[in-house]
Amino acid sequence: MSEGEKMIHEGRKIFLRRCSSCHGIHAEGKPGVPSLKGAPDRFTDDAIQSFIQNGRGEGKQRMPPVRNISGQEIIRVILYLKTLKG
Ligand code: HEC
């Protein structure tokens, strides 16, 4: 496995641990939670990082900040999201 492939593989594991309970195991979303397929085409990496660290949205639909996630982990999750087709 190349370094890049390793990072994507790790990103998938982080996604499953930290994101999939809301966004679905295939990032398909569910009522009230958007699909993340194609999200990296709609948002910059910095924007996605900010959603993860600071949360996003309002009220019932709000995404809370994801606690105790490192910058290295966030980079890997975003790399994984980029492999998903929109
Ligand atoms: C507790 C549930 C929950 C968790 C855990 C969660 N999210 Fe979210 N996420 C949401 C909700 C709800 C929204 C919609 C917020 C809004 O209305 O703008 C959202 C929105 C987003 C968006 C913007 C999508 C769009 O099209 O507007 C991105 C990107 C995102 N989340 C990425 C992640 C990533 C990556 C993780 C894991 C590191 C994660 N989320 C963990 C609930 C969650």
Task: Characterise this structure.
With 86 residues, the protein is mostly helical. It has one domain: Cytochrome Bc1 Complex, Chain D, domain 2, CATH 1.10.760.10. Helix content is 53%, strand content 0%. It is built from 5 helices and no strands. The protein has helices at residues 3-18, 20-23, 39-42, 45-54, 71-82. Helix 1 crosses helix 5. The relative contact order is 0.22. Bound molecules: heme C (HEC). Residues 18-19, 21-23, 32-34, 36, 39, 42-43, 48, 51-52, 56-57, 61, 63-64, 66, 77 line the site of heme C.
Which segments are poorly predicted (pLDDT under 50) over 5 or more consecutive residues? Answer: none
Task: Using the 3D structure, state the CATH architecture.
Answer: Orthogonal Bundle
Number of separate strands:
0
Number of domain units: 1
Element string (H = helix, E = strand) = HHHHH
Can you list the ligands bound to this structure? heme C
CATH fold naming: Cytochrome Bc1 Complex, Chain D, domain 2
Structural classification: mainly alpha
The CATH C-level class name: Mainly Alpha
Largest sheet geometry: none
* Strand proportion: under 5%
Offer a few descriptive terms.
single chain, 86 residues, mainly alpha, binds heme C
List the helices and strands and how they pair.
Blueprint: H1 3-18, H2 20-23, H3 39-42, H4 45-54, H5 71-82
Quick overview of this protein structure:
The protein has 86 residues and is mostly helical.
